[in-house]
């Protein structure tokens, strides 16, 4: 197997670049050379380059691509800018890791992957939450047929008080949505992946905004805000996205997923997944397998592969995986068809919430 180094670059100098992408590229210094970083704020780009010993910084992404000609680019810009920078990087023959969500519509996701395929490049959505030890173990269990065919799933991702009070997460024109598109998308991806990415029939969704005025009681959003550059002050009157969402995804094989996602809700903090098949069921993150009337056992879980002192260890898996895809021709763990389905669910979910009815997947085609 070849071990040549890839030239890597990053567009966007926010929290996720500082806390996840830069550390991951630096960790794999035998595989990557992080050669450039770009941000429209020159101060942010310059400070990132100086802090992490990155040779070049830019304020114009196309100038960076033409000058550096990177092999891989991480897209770490606000959600609504993902598509334009993904297409720009692909047009300049760079493989791409894009922060989630890759796209808001089925059409946009298909367009991006079609361009990547036509140019022989890899495009990988940073669905980094597949890589927790419990989910990796559960995936092995499901793939081995020990649950049987999954016919029901549910997930709950609740922050009791965790509306992001920095950046533009709360502004639809920049983020595209609220809790569902921010933290819910990881759960959608993980459950679809665990269940084998079945064909989607419909989505029924609901959103609301109830607790954004409680500034005095808001907790941390869970992000490492200490590394945020040029953070803007949070104004609750600007918030025009949901802090709570819930819904149902129905599949053509009759299976169903129910879910709830919140930045803020009067419930305990929770990140749980349950999947049921005719042979057994599994609960995560506890890793309990339920069989029959009283046969419970524990998943065999391996420790986290990258004990790197980072809460974003999933990004290390993504950065490692795309290297093996690009250099060694490996099949990607995060497959295009899976990310395309996630984008379709996002589109159908918000359309359903707006229309107040179930939206069939065929309506998106």
Mind explaining what this structure looks like?
- The protein has two domains: 6-129 and 310-333, NAD(P)-binding Rossmann-like Domain (Rossmann fold); 149-277 and 341-364, Dihydrodipicolinate Reductase, domain 2 (2-Layer Sandwich), CATH 3.30.360.
- The strands form two sheets. A nine-stranded mixed β-sheet has the order 14-13-12-11-7-10-9-8-15.
- α1 (15-27) packs across α9, α4 runs parallel beside α5 (106-118) and α5 packs antiparallel against α10.
- It starts with 5 loop residues before the first strand and ends in a 5-residue tail after the last strand.
- By secondary structure, it is an alpha/beta fold.
- The chain has helices at residues 15-27, 42-51, 61-68, 82-91, 106-118, 133-143, 172-175, 179-194, 313-328, 336-355; strands at residues 6-11, 32-38, 56-58, 72-75, 95-99, 123-126, 150-158, 200-208, 244-251, 256-262, 270-277, 281-284, 288-291, 295-298, 359-360.
CATH topology of the largest domain: Dihydrodipicolinate Reductase, domain 2
The level of helicity is: 25-40%
CATH second-level architecture of the largest domain: 2-Layer Sandwich
**Uncertain regions spanning at least 5 consecutive residues:** 220-226
| Pattern of helices and strands | EHEHEHEHEHEHEHHEEEEEEEHHE
Strand content: 15-25%
Oligomer state of the chains in this structure = single chain
CATH class category name of the largest domain: Alpha Beta
By CATH's scheme, which homologous superfamily of the largest domain applies?
Dihydrodipicolinate Reductase, domain 2
């Amino acid at each position: 197997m070849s071990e040549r180094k890839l030239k890597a670059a990053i567009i966007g100098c926010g929290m996720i670049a500082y806390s996840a992408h830069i550390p991951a590229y630096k960790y794999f210094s035998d595989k990557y050379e992080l050669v450039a970083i770009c941000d429209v704020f020159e101060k942010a780009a310059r400070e990132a380059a100086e802090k992490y010993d990155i040779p070049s910084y830019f304020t114009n992404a196309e100038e960076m691509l033409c000058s550096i000609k990177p092999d891989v680019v991480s897209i770490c810009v606000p959600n609504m800018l993902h598509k334009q920078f993904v297409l720009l990087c692909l047009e300049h023959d760079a493989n791409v890791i894009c922060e989630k969500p890759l796209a808001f519509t089925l059409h946009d996701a298909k367009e991006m992957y079609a361009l990547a395929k036509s140019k022989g490049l890899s495009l990988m959505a940073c669905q980094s939450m597949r890589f927790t030890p419990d989910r990796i173990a559960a995936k092995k269990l499901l793939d081995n047929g020990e649950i049987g065919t999954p016919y029901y799933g549910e997930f709950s991702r609740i922050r009791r008080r965790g509306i992001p009070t920095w950046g533009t997460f709360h502004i639809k024109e920049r983020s595209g949505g609220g809790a569902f598109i921010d933290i819910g998308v990881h759960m959608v991806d993980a459950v679809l992946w665990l269940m084998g990415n079945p064909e989607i029939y419909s989505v029924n969704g609901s959103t609301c905004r109830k607790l954004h005025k409680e500034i005095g009681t808001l907790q941390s959003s869970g992000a490492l805000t200490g590394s945020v550059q040029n953070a803007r002050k949070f104004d609750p009157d600007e918030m025009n996205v949901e802090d709570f969402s819930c819904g149902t995804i129905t599949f053509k094989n009759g299976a169903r997923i129910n879910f709830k996602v919140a930045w803020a809700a009067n419930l305990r903090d929770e990140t749980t997944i349950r999947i049921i098949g005719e042979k057994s069921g599994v609960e995560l993150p506890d890793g309990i397998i339920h069989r029959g009337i009283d046969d419970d056992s524990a998943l065999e879980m391996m420790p986290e592969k990258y004990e790197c002192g980072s809460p974003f260890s999933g990004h290390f898996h993504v950065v490692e995986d795309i290297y093996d895809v690009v250099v060694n021709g490996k099949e990607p763990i995060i497959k295009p068809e899976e990310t395309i389905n996630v984008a379709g669910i996002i589109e159908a979910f918000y359309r359903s919430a707006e229309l107040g009815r179930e939206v069939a997947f065929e309506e998106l085609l």
